[in-house]
Structures are given as structure tokens and as C-alpha cells.
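Q: How would the C-alpha cells look for this protein?
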Amino acid sequence: MLLEVYPRATEIVAAILVGMNEPELAASLLGQQFHGRCDCRPGCRFVLTAPAGSSGSQMLWLETAGDVVGEVSLDPTGRFVTNLDISDCAAVGIPPDWLDVTVSTAVAQHVYGR
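A: Here is the predicted structure in C-alpha cell form.
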């Protein structure tokens, strides 16, 4: 589960979505799986919450206090988040290396089957 791998970032993105009047997206995000990091190019910072290629053409800029702090892409129906990125870590109170946090062994076994 995404919430197990990146709990703080997931909770922050969900809270931002609620603040943007997207409570359904926020609720679905809290129950979504972690599908790894995007490998579309070196340095891509997107976290996949659905299998690669699941995104539609819809996306939302994540805004807090009038500033864009990240973005989410949505599935073709617009009902769930397919990937996310937090571009302004300082603004949301997470460390800039949040993506590099080591996944615990228990979570790795669950997510990666190892």
C-alpha cells in the first residue's frame, strides 16, 4: 500500500486534495497500492499509484496557500490518482529526499514479493 511505503507524503497529498475540494480522490489515494517509481526517464520523481500507462489526460496541480506544491495524474475516468509528485517539499514539510527512504523489509516483501 502506498500509505505503508510513503505514509507522510500520502497523508499530505490526501490532505491537499481535501483542501482542494477533492475528498473522493483523497479517500481513494489512502487505499491505493504502491506500484513503484516511474522510470520514464532518469530522475523522474513520480510515484506510481496504479500500473504504468494507467493515466488518462487529466491531472491536477496540488495547491496549498495559493502555491503549486506538486501534481497528480488521474485515470481516464478521473476517479483515482495514477501517480503523484511533490515538487515543493519544504512547503509541505517533508524532507527533499522523501523518495529515497528505505522501504522496510516487511513492506518490501509485500510490495515486491521478496
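The helical segments are 2-5, 7-19, 23-30, 89-92, 105-112.

The beta strands are 47-48, 59-64, 67-74, 81-86.

Upvote if useful.
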